[in-house]
Design brief:
Elements: E1 6-13, H1 19-29, E2 33-41
Parallel strand pairs: 1-2
């Protein structure tokens, strides 16, 4: 079975303190991430 590449976009609004934990969680759950984009809005 082929593992497709995954792209993830996450948008946060005044939640920068949770961004690192969010990214770590994503990486632990999905091993074949081709790109990850975080958009921070304050």
């Amino acid at each position: 079975m082929n593992n497709p590449l995954v792209s993830i976009i996450t948008v946060t609004y005044n939640a920068q303190e949770h961004l690192e934990q969010t990214m770590q969680s994503v990486f632990m759950q999905i091993s074949n991430i081709s790109s990850l984009m975080a958009v921070l809005k304050t």
